[in-house]
Description:
Layout: H1 2-18, H2 21-42, H3 47-62, H4 66-81, H5 89-106
Amino acid sequence: MVKKMRWLILMLESATFICPLADLMRQSLPIRRHLTVFKSTKGKSHPSLASVFIRLADLYNKTGKLRESKFYSENAFRIYSKQVPGTTPEEIAGGLTEVSAIYEGLY
């Protein structure tokens, strides 16, 4: 499952440089399906899940789907705001920085 999450994150990060935005939106459906499976296995508060939420928020922000971008940003923020065992302060700070950059783009 960890390999699949790394693949999802890598795909989201690299796809923005390779694919037109319309193709990215078509790819978001399989990513959301994988997120559902990941949530059921790792739980709704896993830091890796927040990282994928940030990538989806950024994707939706770039395609002008601001409501969806805000939704995924808020979910990432909710996860990073909680003290999850095994999460380093640097990881939390980095995640919150990314969430704030997306919020800045929304408003």
